[in-house]
Structures are given as C-alpha cells and as structure tokens.
Amino acid sequence: MDLSRVYDVLIVGGGNAALCAAITARRNGCSVLVLEGAPKEFRGGNSRHTRNLRCMHDGPADVLTDAYTEREYWEDLLKVTGGQTNEKLARMAIRDSAHCRKWMVQHGVRFQPSLGGTLHLSRTNAFFLGGGKALVNAYYRSAELLGVDIEYNSEVRELKIQDGKFTSAVFVRKGFTHEIRAKALIAAAGGFQSNVAWLKQAWGDAADNFIIRGTPYDKGTVLKMLMEQGVKTIGDPTQCHAVAIDARAPKFDGGIITRVDCVSLGIVVNRYAKRFYDEGEDFWPKRYAIWGRLVAGQPDQIGYSIIDSKSMGTFMPPVFPPIEAESLPELAKKLGLDAEQLVQTVTEYNDAVRPGTFDHTVLDNCATEGITPQKSHWARRLDKPPFYAYPLRPGITFTYLGVSVDEQARIYMQDDKPAKNMFAAGELMAGSILGKGYLAGFGMTIGTVFGRIAGKEASLYVNA
Amino acid sequence: MSTLKSIPHELVAEGERVMRICNACRYCEGFCAVFPAMERRLTFKEDDLNYLANLCHNCTECYYACQYAPPQEFELNFPKTLAEIRMATYQKYAWPGPLAGLFKNNGLATAVISALSLVIILAIMLTSATSKSLLSAYSDAEGAFYAVMSHHTMVLTFGTAAALLFVALAAGYARFWKDTSGKAEGSVSFTALAQAVGDVLRLRYLDGAEGGCAYPEEFQSNARRRFHHLTFYGFILCFAATAVGTVFHYLLGWEGPPPIPGVGKLNLVRSLPVILGSVGGIGLLIGPAGLLWLKSKRNTLLADQKQNGMDAGFLILLILTSLTGFLLTAFRETGAVSTLVVAHLGMVMGIFLTMPYGKFVHGIYRFGALVKNAVEQRTMPTLGSE
Ligand SMILES: Cc1cc2nc3c(=O)[nH]c(=O)nc-3n(C[C@H](O)[C@H](O)[C@H](O)COP(=O)(O)OP(=O)(O)OC[C@H]3O[C@@H](n4cnc5c(N)ncnc54)[C@H](O)[C@@H]3O)c2cc1C
Ligand code: SF4
Ligand code: SF4
Prior knowledge:
The complex is a heterodimer of chains A (464) and B (386).
Chain A: E1 6-12, H1 16-27, E2 32-35, E3 52-54, H2 70-81, H3 87-96, H4 100-106, E4 111-112, E5 125-128, H5 132-146, E6 149-151, E7 155-162, E8 165-173, E9 176-187, H6 196-203, E10 211-212, H7 221-228, E11 233-234, E12 240-246, E13 267-269, H8 284-296, E14 303-308, E15 323-325, H9 328-335, H10 339-352, E16 387-399, E17 402-403, E18 410-412, E19 418-424, H11 427-430, H12 442-463
Helix pairs in contact in A: 1-5, 1-12, 2-3, 3-12, 9-10
Chain B: H1 9-25, H2 34-38, H3 46-55, H4 61-64, H5 78-93, H6 106-127, H7 145-148, H8 151-179, H9 190-202, H10 223-251, H11 272-297, H12 308-330, H13 337-354, H14 361-379
Flavin-adenine dinucleotide is lined by residues 12-18, 35-38, 44-47, 49-53, 155-156, 188-190, 213-215, 217-219, 221-222, 255-256, 397-398, 426-428, 441-444, 447 of chain A.
C-alpha cells in the first residue's frame, strides 16, 4: 500500500456493507482502499455470522418459495418498528432486495434453500450456502480480483473532517500509525455492540453480564468519531437487539450456535426460581428478540429455561448439553437454585395448566389459568423426568444508534445538510430504517442495498 | 453393539463436540450429505460418528465457510476431525483384525508388500516354470508372456488372491454396516440402493453444491472430481479388460495373448482386452498422478498428515501397475518379457494384497455410508426446529 497516494474512495470496515461498497466503487473505476480493523482470520465483522437476507419477490424465485410482496414486507417492517422507520429509505431497501441476489451471485455468493428447522423462513429469506463467512470470503476474493486494496489489522482511530468534508484517516497497523488520504469516505464499520463500556452508559453494571454474539471488533469507534465531528445521529442510543442465549457462551463471537430455542416449550425462571414472563406469548421466532431484554431485567441478568423429556428433540439442538436431573430438587441443586421454591413454582404452574391439544406449529389452546404470569400457548405440565435446563443470559446482536443518511447514502450533519464526500452503509446507518425491533435477514439486506448505493454515489462524486 | 474395539476415546469426544456445534449452526447444509445426515440426529455416539465420517470426502468447503474455524475459540476443524475418525474406522473394521496394524505405517506397508509381491510372482514363475527359458523372447504365436507363465498359473494365482481380497473387503463392509446400524430405520430398498450406486458412479458429492469443491485450495474447482473419475473408471476398465480376456479364453476358446490392434491386423473384438486395458491404463496414469499433484497443493491445515503415506502409496501403486502393463504389452515379444511379467504381475499382486489394508477401503465404506444415507433420507426426518 502506497501511503502517499490519494485514493478515490476509502472504506472503513470490512463486513458485508463495506465489501458491497468497495466492489461497486471499484467497478465504477475508482481506486479503492478497504481498512479492516480485524485480522484476516476474523475479517467480516458480524456479517461473518449471518445466514440469510430478506428478499422481496412476486413469485417463487430460485431458493425462495411462494411470494413476498413489497406490501407485505413493508407492513412487516412497520409492525416491528412501530413506525420508527424512514419510508423512503425502507422502500428502497425492500425494492432492491428483489434484484440484489443476481449481483451477489455475480460476485461469488451462492445460495441454498432454507436450512433444516427454518421452514418458517423459506418464503422470505434467501440463505447463503455456507453462511456469512462464505459470503464474506467470496466478496473479498472478488474485490481482490478487481484490484481493491485491502489492509487487515488496520483500525481507524481518527477521521479528519473539515466543514463537512473528509480529507484523511489515521489508522494503526502493527503498532505504527499511518495517515491516508482519499477523495471520498464510506463508513461501514458496524454498530458499537462490542464496546461494553459504551453499553454500560445505558445499562449500567448489568452490561457486564451481557454476552456479545458477534465480532469483538465492532466497537463503534467510527460512529463515535463521526458524532464528535458533528454528524447527525438517529436511533435510540440506549437500545440494542438482545436475545436470550446460553449463559455458557463465550463473551464474544459465539454466533448463532449459542441460541436456545426451547423457551416456549417449558418455563423460564430467574435466580429466585420464579417465573417472570409469558413463555408462550407468540411463536418463538417472533418472540426470541424480547427475551434478551427480559433476562437483562432479572437479578444478575440470568434465567433458566426448563423443560421435561416430552420436549426433548423438538427444537433446534443447542450447542451446549442441557443440565439434566431426574427430579426437580436435584435440578435446582445443579443450577444453584432454591429447591423448595423451584418445586413450588413448577407445582403452581402444573396445576394451572388447562387441558388442550398441543401443537407447536400453531398458536394452540394449551394455556394456563389463574397464575401470573400466565402461559398463553404450548403450556404442558412439567412432569416427565428427566428434567432439562439451559441457563440464559442476554446476548447482544447489534445496537440501534446510527448516523443519519439520505437516499444517496450521504451522511447528514447536525445542521441537516449532507456531507460532501462522506457516505455510510450497513449497521452504521441502519438506525435510519430500523429504529427499533428487527426483521430476520433485514440487516444484510440494508447492508447489501446501501453498500452498493454508497459505492455508486461515492464514485459519482469522485468522477464528477 | 459390536464387539470391535472402539476408535480412540479422544476422537469420539472431539467428534461429538464438533457435531454439536454444527448441528446448532447448520450453515453448511447445502455442501454435502454429511450435514443433512447430522440433522437427523440429536446425539452423536461413536457409531454415528463412524458413519458420518465415511460420508465425508474431505472437500474442505465447510472449513473455509466456518466462522468457528481456528483461531476462533471453538477451533472447529470439521474436515480434519472427520478425516481422523475415518482413518480410525479403517482400522476398526479391517478383517482379519490383527492386520489393522498395517494402517499404522501404511505407506511403508504398501511398499514392502508390493516388493514382496514381486518376489512371490518370481517364485511362482520359477516353480511353475514351463520348460522354456525365461531369458528368451517369444512371439505372440508362441504365447508371448504365456510362454514364461502359463495362463492357467496366472488364473490360479490371481483367482486365489482375488478370493481372499473379496472375503476381506466383504467382511470389512459387514463390520461397518453392523457397527453403524444404530439409528437407521428400515431396510435397504431398491431405490435407495440405486441412488447410492448413482452417487458413487457420478461422484455426486465431489461436485460440492455446484461447480466443484474447495480442493485443493479455497475456491471451487472440479479438478479432483475429474482426476478421481479417471482413476475410478480407469480401474474399472482394467478390471473389465481382465474379465473379458478370461471370458474369451474359457468361453470362446480364444487362447493366447489378445492381439495388439495395428495397421493391417485390426480385429477389434479379439483386441478388446488390449483396448480396454489401454484406455483404462491411461486413466490410471493421469488420474492418480493428478490426485497426487492436487494433494501436494492442498491446505495442510485440513489434512490428517498421518494419512499421506497411505494415500500416496495406493496412488503410486496404481501408476506403476499401469506403467508396467503398458511396457509388458509393448515388449511382450522381446527378451524382457520375463522381467516385465514379474514387474507387472508383481504390482497387480501388490494392489490385490494391500487393497483391504490401504486407501482403497475408503470406497467400500463410503459406499456403505451412501447406502445408509439413501435409506435414512427416506425414513428419518430432520430433527429440531426454531
Ligand atoms: C450471530 C448473528 C447472526 C446474524 N444473522 C443475521 C442474518 O442471518 N441475516 C441478517 O440480515 N443479519 C444478521 N445479523 C445481523 C448482521 O450481522 C448485521 O446486520 C450486518 O452484518 C451488518 O453488516 P455491516 O457490514 O454493517 O457490519 P459488520 O459486518 O459488523 O462489519 C463491520 C466491520 O467494521 C470493522 N471495523 C469496526 N471498527 C473499525 C475501525 N475503527 N476501523 C476499521 N474497521 C473497523 C469491523 O472489523 C467489521 O469488519 C446477525 C448478527 C449476529 C451477531
Ligand atoms: S462447519 Fe462451521 S459454519 Fe459449517 S455448519 Fe459447522 S459450525 Fe456451521
Ligand atoms: S469436508 Fe466437504 S464433504 Fe466433508 S463434511 Fe465438509 S463439506 Fe461435507
């Protein structure tokens, strides 16, 4: 890498959004440098942990079944965000999601039908063959072949911006600091979810018990620098997407495998062996994202999902083996819970279970009556040993706070004027579209669509 | 449960661990048959692992795609773990059991047995010697190589070796089948069998999802599949050449060396053994050489290095067999015939004797695993759902 040269486009970050931007800008004739903070083995940010993207389509299309129209997509988004979205940007993402698969395939991404156990996504989500790391590998290879310069282990520590115009970035590599100039900047450095100190500002010490599901390299340094330079932000600074995952997961980078998918099949108790929320409120794929916050609200941020042998084998097998016991007191002992209380909680629950026909594929009529919290569906007595438990902690997927952008992915300054040569893509600007809630697969859609827009607009600016 | 000695405990533990990880992830489902078969299970005992390991052909796609591959903390090296288990199963199912030791230092074992085979052939030649001198040349009319070793002796020698070979391979297959029958339901239907045979003949899973496998390096290539096809069909054609020759001899009474097709004496039918053998022989020169070449380029992180000797031993033996076969055909009417007979038949004998105790068995157990897979696809559902 020649540090004295002025690149046309500098891309900070090395995940899906960054690579889509890099490939597009390079194809449009720009010289492009990608600075990825992570080492090569860990390149690709949270994108390396993904598995699919959500696509609109009017009829069966390659790996997708049936149809998923713009209208339904938009309504789903409206529902999960409670209206905290920007319709113009959202519709751009939705519409382009119908076409971007072709571009992805051209750049080496391969698709597969929805995975075993994910039939509910076969209509809406296109799965990457081999998952997100395979996608990231394909994009890096395409970018290299096209002549994009890529530097790993290169964390950007400073952005030089004057009057809303980017001039250069300072990054650290192998202990040395370098400055690199470029005509345009594309910021695609993800959220700040792996910055525990930052999470603590909103969550206090509870954040010490959070597990970060994805990369440890998304520390939000770029977001912070942009904020300090007067960029306009959007999205709730205190909120993050949090799911309940296995408490035995590593602190960072545990990815998809640490999930626990049996909450709706049994009960969940806190460290006082008491239930605290309706486990059967709705289908698990629609509810898993509230359980992170629920567990975060419990003492010591821990919960225990408990099932009996009736449910074993009917949910996605979690990576860590369950804690198993022949009786409830024995289970309580193994979990470090008060045995009497656990027996009491389960007895109360069992007594409240009304007869019904169990069917996990519909909102069935198995409910409890007369206890709080009630369990509205799939309530079956816990009476068939062995009993199994999975300890739960909040697992943070991403944060919502981002920079505000327009339809050209231009970053907005606090005076509501677009910056001249600064663009953003991916998680870093997703707050503009997804102010709250989540739709499975929408993160990759936003990154793919706006990464390419940012790449195109940056090259138009440079070539103008 | 079988009475065979289990594969090493550490391998079972590691196999169980990696299966748990993959079964919770499933991202690699579209690459091959291993992942869907894994998803039909929730627990992984030794028998499950032995079966799944033989369903894997080490294309390494799932390593490059894996977000948990080293240096990530889970240090998941799925292809390598399965390769190690596979090797252990070869020893476990080897028959007779004591010969499993041959897998330990298999490259050397293959070399020594092949050398011994030369001696065996020489000894047979000397003891069964016709009255003819072994140093002279004989025309085709005089029998060429049959002059120095009679057709009858050859049939007797290789018939015996083939019978032993067949028994050993069949016993290994039976052991594999019995040992891994734990969770399988249903018997083998005709369609299941046909599917497995089709999978083998097409090398279906060496295609990756499409466009080949991540072998020898990260990005898709069909090179291995093509070289393997050359090797496989080369082997089959050479076998067919022998079979056809035998039929000619005994059923049609066409004794003597099959004529080499040439200008003016074209007799396609009678030359069939030579034609089949030559086409197959070319496959057996290019195929194994290509596979060796690919092996030299592959990512060493993903290979169980202890198997290099075994892999190379078998491939080199195939090349030498083909090479000596061509030489014998070309120079069968010269004074070198005795030497070449010893060389070629020695190599063939080497292959026969080492087949049940070397790389060849991968095909036997892979076929068994594919049959099991075809049965399971029809009888066992995918387990777990979100
Ligand atoms: C376990 C898990 C599973 C998920 N599954 C899905 C899914 O199936 N579908 C879906 O749509 N979404 C999924 N998501 C969400 C998805 O990962 C994100 O929406 C998406 O990856 C964001 O892409 P990005 O390129 O914006 O950020 P990232 O992929 O996170 O990339 C950010 C990059 O910036 C780099 N970086 C950060 N700071 C600096 C710096 N200062 N200097 C240089 N580089 C820096 C990082 O190293 C990283 O490479 C999942 C998330 C997790 C954690
Ligand atoms: S190899 Fe890795 S990416 Fe593939 S299924 Fe297993 S854990 Fe998932
Ligand atoms: S190495 Fe290839 S064949 Fe083996 S499990 Fe992985 S993807 Fe399947």
